[in-house]
Structures are given as structure tokens and as C-alpha cells.
Design a protein that fits this description.
The complex is a heterodimer of chains A (about 500) and B (about 400). Chain A has about 500 residues and is an alpha/beta fold. Helix content of chain A is about 40%, strand content about 15%. In chain A, the strands form 4 sheets. In chain A, strands 10-9-8-7-6-13-14-15 form an 8-stranded mixed beta sheet, with helices on both faces. Chain A has a 3-stranded antiparallel beta sheet with strand order 2-3-4, covered by helices on one side. A two-stranded antiparallel ribbon of chain A has the order 1-5. The longest helix of chain A is centred in the middle third of the chain and has 24 residues. The radius of gyration of chain A is 24 Å and the shape is globular. The C terminus of chain A is likely disordered. Chain B has about 400 residues and is an alpha/beta fold. Chain B is about 25% helix and about 20% strand. In chain B, the strands form 3 sheets. Chain B has an 8-stranded mixed beta sheet with strand order 1-8-7-3-4-5-6-2, covered by helices on one side. In chain B, helix 2 packs parallel to helix 3 and helix 7 packs parallel to helix 9. The longest helix of chain B has 15 residues. The mean pLDDT of chain B is about 90. Classes of the chains: A alpha/beta (about 500), B alpha/beta (about 400).
């Protein structure tokens, strides 16, 4: 029989540890938050960072073991595992694999609605001015098929996309042909307001396996105020449309998103209750789009964002209460951030990525063939700012569009790892870079973090979620993981339309 | 349950593997059979068998006339059933039952060597090269049981120490028993070497699962438990190499005084670093092998670690990982953990105590290791039957 050795035998005996990349912030008076490059975190007593930096951490202590296990520090007894850290990093950044997976086709700018938060819609009956031609659709599809990813999403937006139903039908048929040729898996989503979702349209969606994502801003008084249309009956048409669509294509294929306007800010509970009433199990308390709102009131952005955060926190608290009572209701933005915090995986949500999802995760093909880096880039263009127009499918090829000046400028500010203010921020691995936002709101791609609405909003929400996590409440964590693990409509929320 | 017996060998020059018959079979079917003879028999009745086992002495019979390898004066033979497969050792005169068709817990035992020396090893390793010996036995066993049972284990010792011989065995297993689910226990350390992992995974048996132990998220604790420096690094790197090939993996954690304190952290570590594993088994200590000798270092009453255990199970299960509890009777578990407890103890070493006979949840309970008769929790007790479901909400 062999001999046994003591535990001391297995320690290297060499004192001291080295630091691996991590960032930190003070969570509250008593606690610091340490976060590694791959998003693993430790909530530790205040002063721990100081102890670490001065190499005064007691080897063999519980804290030492925990920080070593989370790869905040390493020593000669764990040096080989840097390879594992590299794998975790690769996993967290694997959303980059295959390049842009979401392709948004703006098939028309025509719309029956005249929503306050929309910059793009046109009230006209003339189909020739603002509809995508078959030729442009063909060129856009050809470009889309050049992307290396095997799984692609084709999303139709507008205007009101169903006003160009013939264009959609043509594009879908052609997209399927090309997908078969190029060995791609295609997921198709239309983002209509459902006023025009007749039974024929829905039967078509059912037969072609197309999902629908519509807008629902809240109860009738709010929805109709946010989304004016002739007859002031947007809400009624939407609800009828949702019910009809569920019957024909199945509930799991119908999603709704809301936009928070200034008016919405007073009604978080009412909005959530409306989603419950309509039997939705998730709601995206969507941060205010800065286009036309924050841009025009630049100096009030901080104030407005504070109001949004108040709205968001009230809404989230209410949703967590509902969950405690056994109601299945998820908040999508929290779910996205919690996935980043609590799992080794990335999310597909393009608006909160580093490198930015604009251009690398999504491409937008406007009705006229112009290619934009994101939906927001297109909105900017409607305000006469063409900074993020990557090219045009009629005149430029794949390479020119994706390596042109506009794309290069965008990408130069695309990694929050290298942005001033973000580079040292503990929350960086959970956050993103949004050069389009900062260009729009601050006139600078790189942006100024202390006055950035994007930074303020995300830091507040992420810290807010960390306070929940720090409570170490079993039921709450169970709820969070139920959200994270439910794939439900997540695939349809890779990019949420700013207007449907 | 008895799995070995011994007697006095005659004419056994090399290991003999064969299928037991107690009644005798027609001459043309005898080539792969080992005949258990309890009454005097003629040499014609014995001829053509692969071997003969008998409790009788040669002097009592005319057995010595038969030109067949034989073990006579066999101590026990009642446990030998028709169609059991046994291996007869020429030197030690042991007759080991290596396969029982009625059991769902059959394993190929491939070596007694091991690169680790775990404090609680139930099968303490031996330092001699027995790999050729066991390979020959196992290849013959596979030939006899093809197309194979539903389930088969591979165990040791450390199977990867067989090197190329393991690949030979796995290839034969895949060819002879293509539908058999195979579970191989290994310390996983050798898989840290990409070339080995490559050759291993290129055998490509889609029914193969590897059971690999991890005892802590801290390298020093793990290395101490397995008594091998750098074992933690090698195992974790090995797990990552295997994941690259899509190899299904089960993590196995034995619960004892050394592994319990960081069990919740280990659960989190597994999710963060090894989320690809298909199953995590948390296992009660088996008080056999080295364990009694290291009792002071290892023993902790399961009732004392229910908090850590519940936390670890919760951590894994809410994250969507499959987690099971092995070798822990219900009376030692918090009721919240019952649904994770599996009946896992191999039939031949599974026991219940007298106390258990009046237990209300005996049917669902996994019971104890036979070796628990020596060392077990004082909290083993009969539980009341589960309350009938209420008629009012």
C-alpha cells in the first residue's frame, strides 16, 4: 500500500500571487465588486482591492481560494489554467463568430401611423417613392448571403412593412432560394403594426414560417397617444391583430415590444399590466431612443435618463413582485444583462456589445439600397446625418461596404475595452460600446462618459441588478435563471425595431 | 454478493474466460463454456469444455482423467449462475465473476494501476503492469457478450494508463457492442495532452460517457485528495480538451470532510468553467478500500453537510445542469434533495439495514453500500411514508 502525504506537500511553497485582469468599483459602504475580463465577479469586503494590489492577501484563506478560483489572481499552483481563462474569453466573445447575423430590410417608409418617436415614416400613397424595388432587394440578399454565419435572420421593417406586402413576398421567396444555395438557415421576422395583418397575410406567415414582432406601448390611452393614426384606434387594431395572429401562427411566434415615451414614464405598472392582460410573458422596458428625443434636449438628457431609470426600477420591482406571486413575467433588458453577469455565455443582443453590434452584428438595408450599420444609423440619416451609411447595394460591393471609411470610423470607437471611462470600469464586460449613440448625442464617436446617457443608464441598471444579486436571495436567483434559460422570444429580440 | 471464489488449479496455464453452465450442454456448444460440476462425472461428460469448476476433490472422482483445465476443491460455487462469465487466474487460482447477464452494473476492469492515489479510493491501486493480462480477458469477454448489454462500465485503476491498448479495447467495444452505453471512470489527467485526447476521441463511440472526478475549485485541495501534484490542472485542461471533441462528460464529486467545505464554490466553478459537462454526480463516501484507514481525515456525517449540499445542488440545478446524488439514503438527506437522489449503488454491493425494513420510502431510496455495515451515520432511521396528496389546494 502506498504512502499518503499531507496537504502542505501540494502547495508550491512559493509565496505571493499575481493579478489577472480585473476591474473594481465600490458597491456600497461595506462591499466592493471585482469583475474579471470574462465577467466573473466577486462581491468582497471593502479594502480587498487594496489588499490584493499590495500582495497582502493571506494565502490559503477562503478569500484567496475564491479569488484564485474566479481567476482574479493566480499563483504558481494554478498557472497552467490561463488556457481555461482564454477559452472563457473566447466564449464570451463568440457572438462575433460568423459576423453580422441580423439583416434588416426596410421595405417601405410608408406608414399609416404618425408616431412621435419615429423619424422615418411617410404619409403617401405613392408606391414608387419609398418602396424597395425587387432589384434592390435582390442585391441586398446577395450581400447578406456573403456573410459567413450559417444562421441568418431576415427582418422586415418600415414604415409599415405590410404596406409593401408584395415586396416582402418576393424577397422571402428569393431569400429562401438563395439560402438553400448558400447552405444558410434562415429565420424570418416581420415587424408590422398589425393594422394590415389580414387573415391572408397571417396565413402566408404561417405557411412561410415567419414570426411577427409588433408594437404595444401600453393600455389604450397611452398606446393611442404614443401612436396616432387616422381614427385614433391603433390600440384596438393592435390587440385584434395580436389575437388573430396568435390563432393563425401560434402564440410562440407573436412578440410585442414597447417604446417608453415621456408620457409612458408615469405608467410603468399600467404598461406591465397591459402586457399581462394580453398574456405576454415578457416585456422589454426599453430605454428611450435618443433620436429626436434626447438629441433635441441634449442638456436635459441626464435628467430625462434619471426619469427613465426611475420608471425602469419601478417596473422591474413590480415584475419581481409578480414573479414572487408565481406569475411568469420577464423583463428583457434585465434578462440580457443578467445573462452577461451570471453565465459564461454571451447574448445575441446587438445594442449592448463590445465590439459594438452596429455593422458587426446587424446590417440595415434601406428601401433605396443604402446600407446602414444599425437601425439608429438609419434614423440619423433621416435627420440628414449620413455618418453611418456604409454604402449602397447598387453601387458598392461586399468588401467596399464592410471595409469602407464609414465602417472603419465606426469600428475605431467600437470596443469599450479601449474607450476612455470604459477601460477602467468594473461593469465593462456587461456593457457595450455605442459609437452611434455618442455621435448622435455628443457629436463624438468616442463620447464623454461622465455626461453620457448611455453610460449613466447602463451603469445604473447593472449596479441595480448587482444589488439584487448581492442579496443572495435564493428565490430571486431562481427567477433570474428561469428568465435566462427561457429562450422564448429572445431570438426575435436580437435587434428590437425602433418602430413597428 | 459474492463475486470471487478460489480452488486448486490443474492444467490452467493461462487466464481462462468462459461462460458458466451448471447443467452441461451438448458437445458442440462446449467450446466457450465453463462447466460447474457438483457430482462425479465421466470424462466424456467433461470433454470439450473450456474449463471445469468443481467443489469436489480429484480423489473423490475420476475428474483428473479429463484433459480439461480445472479448478477443483472450489470453496464456493452457489453464486455462479448459468451464463455468468468468469475469469480463471492461473497463478492465484481465483475464479472471478466478470459479467452477469442479469445485472445492469457490469464493468470491464482494465487495470489496477493508477496515476493518482485518492485518500478515499475504494479500489486501491497496485504498482504492477497488469494491462496485457486484463486486455486479453476483456477482449475475450467482449467477444462472448457481443452484441452487448444495454450498459457497460469501464473501470480500474486508471484506464487511460493502458494507452494504445485502451484504444484497442474501445474500438473492439464499439465494433462488437455498437448499441451499448459505455461509462468509463477516469481521473481525466492524461487528456490534458491534446495528442492523446485526439487519438482517444477519434475512436468515436457516440455511446461513451466519461466519469471524471473533481473535488474542489481549489487546485491544492484537489491535488491533496487525489494525492498527486498538478492533478487539478491536468484534469481541468483535460476536460477542456475533451469538450473540444464534444465528448460527453460526467463530473463526479465524492463528499467528505475535505471536499464539503468548498462544495458550493465547486458547483459555481463547474458552471463557469465546465458548463459543457452533461451531468454532475455528488456521491456519498464509500467506506471501503483506503477510506477506513483515512477515516479521521475523511469522515463527516452526511447530516452535517446538508447545507453545503443543498446550496451546491441548487446552484447547479437552477443553472440548468443535470445533477444527481449517489450513495445517500433518504434518511440522511433534506427532503428538498430527495428528487435528486438516484439508486446508484451497484446491485452487488447495495444493502439495506434492518431498520430500513419498516421505512416508508424504502422503495425510492438508494440504500447503502455493503461496506456501510462497518461505518455509517448514526442517523440512519426509518421514515414515515409520504403523506397522501391533499384533496384541497
Amino acid at each position: 500500500m502506498r504512502q499518503f502525504y499531507t496537504i502542505e506537500t501540494y502547495q508550491s511553497g512559493k509565496a505571493g500571487h499575481a493579478l489577472l485582469p480585473f476591474r473594481f468599483l465600490r458597491l456600497d459602504h461595506d462591499r466592493e465588486l471585482l469583475v474579471t475580463d470574462v465577467g466573473e465577479y466577486a462581491i468582497v469586503p471593502t479594502g480587498t482591492t487594496d489588499t490584493l494590489v499590495h500582495n497582502r492577501l493571506e494565502p490559503g484563506s477562503t478569500l484567496y481560494k475564491t479569488l484564485k478560483s474566479k481567476q482574479v489572481i493566480y499563483d504558481t499552483d494554478s498557472a497552467l489554467l490561463l488556457d481555461v481563462l482564454a477559452t472563457k474569453y473566447r466564449t464570451k466573445k463568440s457572438f462575433l463568430n460568423g459576423f453580422a447575423k441580423l439583416h434588416i430590410f426596410v421595405v417601405t417608409l410608408r406608414c399609416d401611423h404618425s408616431c412621435h418617436y419615429c423619424q422615418v415614416s411617410r404619409q403617401t400613397a405613392d408606391r414608387t417613392l419609398y418602396d424597395m424595388s425587387p432589384e434592390i432587394a435582390e442585391r441586398a440578399l446577395q450581400l447578406m448571403m456573403r456573410v459567413p454565419a450559417k444562421d441568418l435572420t431576415l427582418e422586415f421593417q418600415g414604415g409599415e412593412p405590410l404596406l409593401a406586402f408584395e415586396t416582402i413576398k418576393y424577397t422571402v421567396a428569393r431569400a429562401k432560394e438563395l439560402a438553400a444555395q448558400h447552405d444558410k438557415n434562415l429565420q424570418i421576422v416581420i415587424c408590422p403594426n398589425l393594422a394590415f395583418a389580414s387573415h391572408d397575410v397571417l396565413a402566408y406567415c404561417r405557411d412561410e414560417n415567419i414570426k411577427l414582432s409588433t408594437s404595444l406601448d401600453g393600455p389604450a390611452f397611452l398606446h393611442n397617444a404614443n401612436r396616432p393614426r387616422p381614427g385614433n384606434n391603433s390600440y384596438e387594431l393592435t390587440i385584434e391583430g395580436i389575437n388573430r395572429a396568435r390563432e393563425v401562427i401560434g402564440s410562440q411566434n407573436v412578440a410585442a415590444v414597447m417604446t417608453t415615451t415621456r408620457r409612458s414614464l408615469d405608467y410603468p405598472i399600467e404598461i406591465i399590466d397591459e402586457y399581462r392582460r394580453q398574456e405576454f410573458h415578457s416585456i422589454f422596458l426599453r430605454p428611450i431612443s435618443p433620436y429626436g428625443f434626447a438629441v433635441k434636449s441634449k442638456h436635459r438628457t441626464g435628467y430625462e435618463m434619471a426619469r427613465f431609470l426611475d420608471f425602469y426600477k419601478k417596473g422591474l420591482a413590480y415584475i419581481l413582485d409578480l414573479n414572487r406571486q408565481g406569475v411568469n413575467m420577464q423583463e428583457v433588458y434585465a434578462k440580457i444583462i443578467l445573462t452577461k453577469i451570471l453565465t459564461p455565455y454571451p447574448t445575441g443582443y446587438v445594442d449592448l456589445q463590445s465590439p459594438t453590434g452596429s455593422g458587426t452584428g446587424v446590417l440595415v438595408y434601406n428601401y433605396n439600397g443604402a446600407v446602414y450599420a444599425s437601425d439608429e444609423s438609419r434614423m440619423l440619416a433621416e435627420m440628414n446625418d449620413e455618418s453611418f451609411r456604409l454604402g449602397n447595394v447598387m453601387t458598392d460591393d461586399y468588401r467596399t461596404i464592410l471595409t469602407g471609411t464609414a465602417m472603419q470610423r465606426l469600428l475605431s470607437a467600437s470596443c469599450n475595452e479601449a474607450l476612455p471611462g470604459c477601460a477602467d470600469c468594473a461593469l465593462q464586460p456587461y456593457c457595450g460600446a455605442d459609437p452611434v449613440f455618442h455621435h448622435a448625442t455628443q457629436g463624438d464617436l468616442f463620447g464623454h462618459r461622465p455626461t453620457s446617457g448611455f453610460c449613466f443608464k447602463n451603469m445604473e441598471i447593472i449596479k441595480h441588478l448587482f444589488r439584487f444579486i448581492a442579496e443572495d436571495d435564493r428565490d430571486l436567483l431562481r427567477t433570474f435563471f428561469t428568465w435566462i434559460r427561457d429562450q422564448g422570444h429572445t431570438d426575435m429580440l436580437a435587434e428590437v425595431p425602433t418602430c413597428a | 454478493m459474492r463475486l470471487t471464489t478460489a480452488g486448486i488449479p490443474v492444467g490452467v496455464t493461462s487466464p481462462v474466460v468462459g461462460r458458466i453452465t451448471r447443467l452441461g450442454v451438448a458437445e458442440e456448444e462446449r467450446r466457450e463454456r465453463i462447466y460447474v460440476v457438483t457430482q462425479p462425472a465421466t470424462s466424456e461428460e467433461l470433454s470439450g469444455y473450456r474449463a471445469v469448476l468443481t467443489p469436489l476433490k480429484p480423489t473423490e472422482t475420476s475428474l483428473s482423467d479429463a484433459l480439461v483445465p480445472m479448478i477443483h476443491s472450489l470453496r464456493d460455487n452457489d453464486h455462479l449462475r448459468d451464463n455468468d462469465i468468469v475469469a480463471i487466474q492461473p497463478t492465484s487460482s481465483f475464479v472471478r465473476t466478470i459479467y452477469r447477464p442479469d445485472s445492469s452494473h457490469n464493468s470491464l476492469f482494465v487495470t489496477e494501476r493508477c496515476s493518482s492515489n485518492c485518500l478515499m479510493c475504494s479500489q486501491p491501486p497496485k504498482d504492477r503492469d497488469d494491462t496485457d493480462h486484463f486486455l486479453a480477458i476483456n477482449l475475450e469477454l467482449l467477444r462472448l457478450i457481443a452484441p452487448g448489454p444495454e450498459y457497460l462500465g469501464i473501470t480500474g485503476g486508471e484506464p487511460t494508463l493502458l494507452g494504445a491498448k485502451l484504444l484497442t479495447l474501445l474500438t473492439r467495444l464499439k465494433d462488437d457492442c455498437p448499441d451499448t452505453r459505455v461509462h468509463m471512470l477516469t481521473n481525466g489527467r492524461l487528456f490534458a495532452w491534446p495528442a492523446f485526447t485526439r487519438s482517444f476521441c477519434e475512436v468515436h463511440n457516440p455511446n461513451l460517457v466519461l466519469g471524471i472526478p473533481l473535488y474542489a475549485d481549489d487546485p491544492i485541495i484537489h491535488d491533496y485528495v487525489v494525492q498527486a501534484k498538478h492533478a487539478f490542472d491536468q484534469t481541468v485542461l483535460g476536460l477542456h480538451q475533451l469538450a473540444r471533441w464534444g465528448q460527453p462528460i460526467e463530473i463526479r464529486v465524492v463528499l467528505h470532510k475535505i471536499s464539503v467545505p468548498r462544495l458550493p464554490q465547486l458547483a459555481e466553478y463547474i458552471y463557469r468553467n465546465l458548463p459543457f459537462v452533461t451531468h454532475v454526480a455528488l456521491m456519498g463516501l464509500e467506506p471501503t478500500g483506503y477510506t477506513p484507514r483515512n477515516k479521521e481525515k475523511l469522515w463527516i456525517d452526511p447530516t452535517e453537510y446538508q447545507g453545503e449540499l443543498e446550496q451546491a445542488v441548487e446552484t447547479l440545478s437552477v443553472r440548468g445542469m443535470n445533477v444527481s446524488l449517489y450513495n445517500l439514503p433518504f434518511c440522511l438527506l433534506r427532503p428538498s434533495l430527495w428528487k435528486f437522489a438516484r439508486k446508484s449503488i451497484s446491485d452487488w454491493k447495495n444493502v439495506f439495514f434492518q431498520e430500513c425494513e419498516r421505512c416508508g420510502v424504502l422503495e425510492q431510496c438508494g440504500g447503502l453500500f455493503q461496506s456501510a455495515e462497518r461505518l455509517h451515520s448514526p442517523h440512519i432511521k426509518a421514515l414515515p411514508p409520504p403523506a397522501p396528496p391533499s384533496l384541497v389546494a
